[in-house]
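Side project, low priority. Logging it here so it doesn't get lost.
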Amino acid sequence: CPTLREPDGLALSSRNVYLSEEERKQALVLYETLNRAKQEILTNRQVTVGELVGKMESMIRSAPDARIDYIEVLTYPKLQPFSDYQYIAAIEETEYIVIALAVFIGKTRLIDNCILESRNVTK
């Protein structure tokens, strides 16, 4: 089922109450990063998984209180990781691609993800 979100895009979570006002603003970088990653996948078929993750890391690190736990690009439903060197356009063995991340904003660990149909990527 789709991730339920606040009006500004932050994933609904009981952990959100632990964020200060400033941390709450910084936490929006997660949703923005996932959206930018989706656009990158849909428009740049020659990007590798490693390059995509690198771009996502840079964007998340722009938030001063962010500390990345993980960023993964996985098959769905098996949740197997893709090689860092694999081109996004070459992903054909799965029906869906999942981008999942966990990031600490201050002391609060937040998780988020997005799912893309690979047929939209490989056309």
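Brief comment: The first helix runs from residue 21 to 43.
Revisit when time allows.
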